[in-house]
Sequence to fold (353 residues):
Amino acid sequence: MAHESRPRTLDPENLGVLETWLGRCIGADDLTIEKAELLSGGAIGENWRLDATVEGGGFQGKQDWVLRTDAATRMAMSHDRAHEFACLRAAHEAGVCVPEPIAECADADLIGAPFMVVAHVGGYAQGHKIVRDPVVAKAGAALAEALGTQLATIHAIRPPGNGLDFLALPEKSPALVQVEQMREHLDRISEPRPALEYILGWLERNAPAKGQVVLCHGDFRTGNFMADQGALTGILDWEFCHWGDRHLDIGWFCARCWRFGADECEAGGIGPRDAFYKGYNAQTDTPLDAAQVPYWEILSAARWAVVALLQGERHISGGEPSVELLLTGLMVPEMEYDALQGILAFEREYAHG
Fold:
């Protein structure tokens, strides 16, 4: 269960309208939701586990689903549920290991906000737990390799994609697009961040040229995949999906901020970087450029700093009082430090190489 009380969208005591709509959507004769349980995590969206019984149609019998809807306040940079569902569906059709998409509803009046329903997958996703799991420690290289393979499968989806025409194509270097987006969000933050402004300037000056554009997950990291006994069971959270540079996802997964303290395991805190790269390159028709990854790790630290600022603003503004969001906002100096250290290392190794 979630560990703090915040305003919630779904009312688990009044599920009749949801039952009727969902039953009609999947062609059931009857559908009953026995229990709706709020799951932990989901700082950007709410995730509810639904235990349902279905009579008739293609989902006959007991069903274990997850309903994903908006939290009380949304981040402007994240997709709405209809678009997230479309990204998930495209990945599912491409053979990516994701929860099966069941249904989506754009009508905010039904439960209080748009939502989507997907199959529940086994295992757990909490990053701090995964990187400290002794089973994962033994299987870390294999898990990192499997995740590399899955990421390459995602990146094999190219424009225009399947039902993804709502995603804007970058007209210039995707790195510059990312920097511009971060500047726009930073301009709306009340507190000045001179270190972050310096980092964004460096990223702008050193941005790689535009290369092949692929479907980026946008938040591919430990904490956004499910694992069970050290094996991958599903890749989650597609609300930041976009057309972009493959190295964004690679740098985001390998960035220190997503190792959850297991810094020696450079691939998401779970295994060696080489295993992750191996899985990726074995699956793709365009091998990654390892020399580009340090730049994208610096960009990842800056991007997480901006996201953390926006999360903190959700609390400070009074839109969604939350200790979790407040503490997230206080993580920004650590991300700035990581980015500055990355810049120093980059310039030592690459500037005159």
User: Anything to note?
Assistant: DSSP finds eleven helices and nine strands in the chain. The chain has two domains: 16-119, 127-349. The CA atoms of residues 208 and 273 lie 22 Å apart. The beta strands are 30-38, 45-55, 61-70, 101-105, 115-119, 214-216, 225-228, 231-235, 242-244.
